[in-house]
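Go through this pair.

…
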Amino acid sequence: MLPWFQDKFPLYLAPMAGVTDTTFRQLCKEYGADVMVTEFVSAEGIFRKNERTMEYLDFEEAERPLGVQIFGGDPEHLGEAARIVCEWKRPDFIDINFGCPVSKVVSKNGGSSLLRDCPLLARIATAIVKAAAPLPVTAKMRIGWSADTINATTTARILEDCGIQAIAVHGRTKEQGYTGLADWGVIGEVAATVKIPVIGNGDLITPQDVELRKKTTGVAGVMIGRAAMQHPWVFRQIKHFLATGEHLPPPSLPGIWAHVRRHCAAEVARMGSELHAMQSMRTQLMAYSRGMPDAKRLRERFSHVESLMQLDGIAEDNLRSQAGV
């Protein structure tokens, strides 16, 4: 069994394109996330040693255990990409994306499109397991392509037989995208079907959500996505609740602003360009605004932010208005 499952119930940070870069992963690690997975990386980009693609593979030692998630539709190229990643970056595991519903990935026979072609899925999993050895390989998948073709238990058994050592299951179909409700009944069926750890993913917003799924589905861990994007301190809150049954109070408004400022400053330092870093942070700033007072006005201002000085001004105005000054 993978070491982070031994006598533990690990909290994974879900890989999210354009969000879970090394800066964000390090922040989530500090808040209590146990296992990191990189943004998904194109096997073709790795195979061709594309410079931008290789940047997605960067991580710091503090982020371990960390897996590199790869996607694609060619077993040979995926195997070679896994070998390159293991040799160059030495992650703790390789993760295969069988879940992405985005058209540009699906159209290239990657992500969730493979849920419709189990023989190809099996060849890909086998090739990556062989190429990555002795590093373990895990996979992330959805419960099926559509409501009429839910095949999660079959797919999970195939992956287990191919040597996959853990499976994260998002409880939606490809056709659902990110709408509707995650089907935790199917996730529970997968957990009961295979002997390897199953990580549940979907609609985990509060510590109570995690406790409920832990108690009722047999999952060995959970993966937090959008809730972490909005409130990365959710990992600390979940761990405290699971350990004590008590709720940690949310951060104060000044505490949230201190976190936002730190995240932006770290991204500026990493990218080396304040303008580019702040522009790239705009989507994340929109996520942070949810739940903050005067969120609509914040989003308007965040959409134009270009510097840390501007960010400081926005924070000062927001804090002052809430203090009634």
